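Reply to dn_fold:

You asked what the input looked like. This is it:
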Amino acid sequence: MSNARNLANLLGTRTQITTADIADGAFQANKNLIINGAMQMAQRGTSSSSSGYQTVDRFKTNLSGPTITQSQHSLTSSDTPYSYGFRSSYHIEVTGVGTNAATDYLEINQNIEAQNIAKSGWNYTSASSFITLSFWVKASVAGTYAVLFDSTDGTQQLYGFEYTVSANTWKKVTHTIPGYSNIAVDNDNGIGLRLFIILYYGTDYTVASSPLNEQWGTLGSPTDYVNDFAQNMLTTANATFEVTGVQLEVGETATPFEHRSYGDELARCQRYYAKTYNDGVAPGTATSAGSVFHSLDAQQGYAKATWDFPVTMRSNPTIVLYNDNDGTSGQVSGDSTNYTGSAAYIGNNRAIGGVSGIALGGSTYLRFHATMDAEL
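and this is what came back:
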C-alpha cells in the first residue's frame, strides 16, 4: 500500500492528523479484505468468453442465460477512477442476450477466506460493529443494481443493498454493513464471506420487497435474494458493466483505497492461483521462452521433476501441466516428443510432476508449464 498517497488524500490542505483519522484507519495498511480490488492482476488472461475464474484474479463471473465477454479493461484519463490511481477495471459485455427474464442472472463474485474475516477485527456478531464496502462502477444501462453478502459458515445469513447509476457514468458506491448475532465464521481456510455484485437477477431470485434488503436474514421461499430489477441489461446486446476499486474494510467509514504494490498483490493472488508462464502469457500458450526446466530422476522408465510454488497456497491445488510446443494440457515436452504428464504429488507449497514410459538418454530433459488452482 502507498501510505504516503493515502495520507495525502486524507490530509488535503490540513497540516495535522487527528486521533479520529487514526481510529478510522484512513491510512492503515492491510485494511482491504478484498484481494486485487484494483483489478491489476490477470494471470489467466485478459479476455474470455467463458464464465467462472477466467481473467482478473480472485473475481469470477457467474451467469445463466446470456453469453458474455469478461476482460481486464484498461482505463484512461477520461475514466473518473483514473485520477485516483486506478488503471484497470473488471469489464463485462453482453455478447448474446438472455432469453428468459425469470431464470437469467449475471453476477461478479469474490469469496473471502474465513480466517481473514475471523481475524479482521470485525465483531461480526455485534450489530454495533461494522464493515464498509466501496467500489467504482459504470454501466451502459441506467438503473438500480444490487450487492449481496453471503455468510456461509453455520446457518447461511445474507445481506443485500441497492444503488442507482446513470448510463455510462462512473459512480462511487459506499455502503456500511452491521454485524449480526446469527453470523458464524470459522477460523479456517474455507469460505467465510461471499461478495456478489449483481448485474441482473431474474424474478425466480427476487421479490418486490426483499426481507434481505439492508438487513441480515435467511433465504426465504421463493428465493428472495434481492428486490426485483426494474431494468434487464441482459436483453441489451453489447451492454457493458465495469467495476474497480473494490474495498471491504472494518469500520463505519469508507476510507481511501489501499493501493498495494504490484508484487504485493501478485503474491496475495498466488495463494489461490499461480502459473509457471511468464507474466502476461496466458496458460495454454505455446512458448519455450518461459519454460520450466527441471533435472530428472530416472527410475524404471519414470521421469519426475519437483517444483516449488511461488507462495504457500491456500490448500493443495489442482494442477494442470502443459507442453511448451503447442500448449496442449496434460502433456510435457521432452526433446522433440510430447509425453502425457501429471502431478504425482501435490502439497500446498510444492509438487512433483511425473511422466512414465520415457526412455531417458544422457541429454534428455523435460520442459513443461503448469497452473496451480486453489481458489475458493
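Residues 1-13 have pLDDT under 50 and may be disordered.
Hope that clears it up.
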